[in-house]
Amino acid sequence: MQPAIAQYPIAQYPISIAPMMDRTDRHYRYFMRQITKQTLLYTEMVTSAAIKHGDKDYLLGFSALEKPLVLQVGGDLPQDLAECARIAATMGYDEINLNVGCPSDRVQSGNFGACLMKTPDQVARCIEAMGRAAPIAVSVKHRIGVDELDSYEHMRNFVQILASAGCQKFTVHARKAWLQGLSPKDNREIPPLRYGDVHQLKQEFPHLLIEINGGFTDLEQAQAQLNYVDAVMIGRAAYDNPYLFATSDRQFYGSSHSIPSRLEVAAAMIPYIDHWTAKGLKLHKITRHMLQLFHGQAGSRIWKRMLTDNSCKAGADSAVIEEAIAAVRLCLG
């Protein structure tokens, strides 16, 4: 019998920002919501053990403005991941995503991430347990292959087994993962991209939501991919050039709201910064995500220098942002 997993609307979110360790925390996500209201956002990967035993508010807390939002988890024990799904649903996440793509040594030692592509039946048991545990959509982010198991047929079999367990959404990083000999950074760059494999996957499984990830640097590339797949995930470019997403709501969701300027985005962060610094958070925990706001623009160098030099000082608060905004205005004339 098909597991009772929550149904996932096909192509509801045609564009998303990838989960990135040490990057997509709640402060980055709030910052991005000043730029795009509708792009699907993800947390950093959080292990199932951390979710079970750690400070849930610290690890998983978010503001309502960050939604739609997906919790990405790492783990390989069905009962633990089921508990994560229940917690995610209770806290108001829109989806829970299982990481079957990360190649780092730490992830491998915990027997999750990309190494799980070698054991699809185990992943299927996890998916089924998560789906039965809570009324929340369950998805998987994986590679096109791992080590020598890198044929299209292997990926197709992996997806078919997980789909039979109830998974309806697959985010596919279009590079294989080498678990030995390549760093996580190299695994994002050295194995060649094989977009055609992901396109073929959509052709063979038209009833599944297939999202493609890997190497995309602008929205025009993402738009072109929607001729072949349901959705596109952008990672590093979303962090290195966050204002890239300023037009995404209009382009992918038909929104008619006005597009904020970079200066307006910066100013919109001031009340948020006041809130968190009043609670004792160091300013640089927020501003480190804002350094690339003026990427490629006049004023970018002074913006980054002022935030970098001043955000770590004792008592630093939103005045740092106000002063940096004023300096950029002068650069812009």
TrEMBL record:
Substrates-to-products reaction catalysed: 5,6-dihydrouridine(20a) in tRNA + NAD(+) = uridine(20a) in tRNA + NADH + H(+); 5,6-dihydrouridine(20) in tRNA + NAD(+) = uridine(20) in tRNA + NADH + H(+); 5,6-dihydrouridine(20) in tRNA + NADP(+) = uridine(20) in tRNA + NADPH + H(+); 5,6-dihydrouridine(20a) in tRNA + NADP(+) = uridine(20a) in tRNA + NADPH + H(+)
Keywords of the record: Flavoprotein, FMN, NADP, Nucleotide-binding, Oxidoreductase, RNA-binding, tRNA processing, tRNA-binding
Annotated positions binding FMN: P19, M20, M21, Q72, K141, H173, N213, G214, G215, G235, R236
InterPro entries the UniProt entry points to: Aldolase_TIM, DUS-like_FMN-bd, DUS_fam, DusA, tRNA_hU_synthase_CS
List of catalytic residues: C102
Enzyme class: oxidoreductase
Keyword tRNA processing applies: yes
Required cofactor names: FMN
SUPFAM superfamilies registered for this protein in UniProt: FMN-linked oxidoreductases (SSF51395)
EC number: 1.3.1.91
Gene3D superfamilies: 1.20.120.1460, Aldolase class I (3.20.20.70)
Site feature location: Interacts with tRNA: N99, K185, R188, R301
A single MF term (Gene Ontology): flavin adenine dinucleotide binding
Taxonomy, superkingdom: Bacteria
Family membership noted in the UniProt record: Belongs to the Dus family. DusA subfamily.
Function: Catalyzes the synthesis of 5,6-dihydrouridine (D), a modified base found in the D-loop of most tRNAs, via the reduction of the C5-C6 double bond in target uridines. Specifically modifies U20 and U20a in tRNAs.
HAMAP family: DusA_subfam
Name of this chain's protein: tRNA-dihydrouridine(20/20a) synthase
Native organism: Pseudanabaena cinerea FACHB-1277
Designated gene of the protein: dusA
